[in-house]
């Protein structure tokens, strides 16, 4: 009904403005418009405005324009000013986009079936200025001339615009899927409000009175969970964090909750709509990376949580726990295809050079100071030092920093083919892209990695 009503309003508006083509109306999570002048200003970004060739009826035409996703980014979230953050994950998950011409013609497609870079908004054809036109190497039905409006329908975000409590928190437990709106959780017997805080790696502490539902008690009601289980949360931006159910069940210094209210108000999408945090009368404090924000999906692994520590040695010393490593992987997730005697597999983790930033400088480490300071000491890496990677059984190899510098093809991996590393490789493994042109000399796979050392002497 909403879509039909909006479409009717658009047709009326277009009948008035069809002669002028611009401005282009954008309707989605928010509303905006693009005038001819604003489009011209966007052209100043050389990576935005490009020339490309389209074959039409056996004739090659050359267009100038910009990827359609740049305009959709203006209304696929709550950003109201440049630079707009394009939500690629939502595009790939799928939602409806309707293109409407000034004469009333419209066509709708599902983004899940349309590669993100397939469509362009062009304003020149073979050097001649044209009305805003959607083009691409696609079916001609999507090539809309004299475009006047773009409408996108993202159900969960549109619902949240009406009510912040309409957001659904999803659960996957033992093969069964559940979903609860925040309204349902707020009205449940589990709902509590208490103070809590978290401290970032840089030392900044954030306080609040949070409202939500206790994680362990709520999950016990849904399924037969035990303190031996492992919980994983997946955020809207694909950030992942795992928790020991034993830690979540421990109420000695507070209660872990799925929070969606802060200081009496519903949290916005970022840092909400849901985040994990510990609360209690004594105002407990937790490490910031443990407080996952923008939580969308909760999964129970059905197996025990296994902690581990990665020792980092060098100009400083750190003991990185499992959740710190996973936080780094979530922020810098990289996947390679690695070949071994057992065959080819896909490993996901964090580039090794990024971990070196913890111990390649006596003063700076990742997230331990102002964000304007880059922790990684590239000058030292290019000057050259040894990097020793050691396994649980004492086996070790040494690589050169010059060959690891900014090399995203060499990883410390945490998963194999989307699953936790198998016995014999767990907890961490050194792997690389098998056909990379940046494979360091003398590199060998190291299973069960427990320490990384920077040796500058």
The quaternary state of the protein chains shown equals: single chain
Which ranges are low-confidence, i.e. pLDDT below 50, for 5 or more consecutive residues?
Answer: 1-20
How many distinct folded domains?
A: 3
| Helical residues, percent | 10-25%
**Which of globular, elongated, flat, extended, rod-shaped describes the shape?**
globular
**CATH superfamily label of the largest domain:** Oxidoreductase, molybdopterin-binding domain
Percent strand equals 35-45%
Q: Any idea of the CATH topology of the largest domain?
A: Sulfite Oxidase, Chain A, domain 2
Major beta sheet summary? 6 strands, mixed
Task: Describe the fold and architecture.
By secondary structure, the chain is an alpha+beta fold. It has 3 domains: 157 residues, Sulfite Oxidase, Chain A, domain 2; 138 residues, Sulfite Oxidase, Chain A, domain 2 (Alpha-Beta Complex); 147 residues, Sulfite Oxidase, Chain A, domain 2 (Alpha-Beta Complex), CATH 3.90.420.10. It has 12 helices and 30 strands. The strands form 6 sheets. Strands 12, 13, 16, 17, 18 and 19 form a 6-stranded mixed sheet that branches. A hairpin with a 4-residue loop joins strand 14 and strand 15. The longest helix is centred in the first third of the chain and has 16 residues. The protein starts with a helix and ends with a strand. The N terminus is likely disordered.
């Amino acid at each position: 009904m909403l879509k039909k009503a909006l479409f009717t309003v658009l047709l009326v508006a277009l009948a008035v403005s069809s002669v002028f083509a611009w401005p282009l109306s954008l309707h989605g999570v928010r509303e905006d418009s693009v005038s001819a002048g604003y489009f011209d200003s966007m052209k100043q970004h050389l990576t935005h405005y490009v020339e490309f060739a389209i074959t039409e009826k056996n004739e090659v035409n050359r267009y100038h324009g910009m990827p359609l996703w740049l305009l959709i980014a203006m209304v696929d979230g709550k950003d109201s000013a440049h630079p707009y953050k394009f939500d690629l994950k939502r595009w790939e998950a799928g939602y409806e986009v309707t293109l409407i011409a000034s004469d009333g013609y419209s066509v709708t497609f599902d983004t899940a079936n349309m590669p993100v870079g397939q469509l362009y908004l062009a304003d020149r054809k073979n050097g001649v200025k044209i009305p805003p036109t959607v083009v691409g190497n696609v079916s001609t039905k999507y090539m809309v001339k004299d475009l006047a409006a773009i409408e996108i329908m993202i159900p969960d975000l549109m619902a949240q615009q009406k009510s912040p409590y309409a957001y659904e928190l999803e659960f996957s437990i033992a093969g069964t899927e559940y979903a609860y709106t925040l309204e349902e959780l707020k009205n449940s017997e589990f709902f509590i409000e208490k103070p809590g805080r978290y401290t970032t790696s840089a030392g900044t502490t954030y306080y609040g009175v949070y409202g939500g539902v206790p994680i362990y008690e709520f999950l016990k009601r849904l399924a037969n969970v035990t303190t031996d289980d492992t919980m994983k949360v997946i955020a809207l931006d694909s950030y992942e964090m795992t928790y020991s159910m034993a830690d979540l069940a421990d109420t000695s210094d507070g209660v872990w909750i799925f929070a969606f209210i802060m200081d009496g108000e519903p949290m916005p999408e970022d840092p909400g709509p849901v985040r994990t945090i510990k609360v209690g009368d004594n105002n407990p404090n937790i490490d910031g990376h443990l407080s996952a924000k923008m939580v969308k999906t909760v999964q129970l692994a059905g197996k025990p949580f296994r902690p581990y520590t990665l020792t980092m040695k060098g100009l400083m010393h750190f003991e990185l726990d499992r959740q710190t490593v996973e936080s780094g992987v979530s922020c810098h997730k990289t996947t390679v295809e690695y070949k071994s005697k057992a065959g080819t597999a896909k490993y996901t983790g964090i580039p090794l050079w990024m971990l070196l930033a913890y111990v390649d400088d006596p003063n700076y480490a990742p997230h331990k100071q102002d964000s304007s300071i880059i922790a990684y000491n590239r000058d030292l890496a290019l000057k050259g030092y040894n990097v020793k990677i050691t396994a649980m059984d004492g086996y070790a190899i040494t690589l050169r920093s010059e060959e690891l510098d900014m090399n995203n093809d060499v990883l410390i991996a945490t998963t194999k083919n989307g699953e936790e590393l198998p016995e014999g490789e767990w907890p961490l493994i050194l792997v690389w892209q098998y056909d990379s042109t940046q494979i360091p000399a003398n590199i060998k796979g190291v299973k069960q990695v427990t320490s990384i050392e920077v040796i500058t002497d």
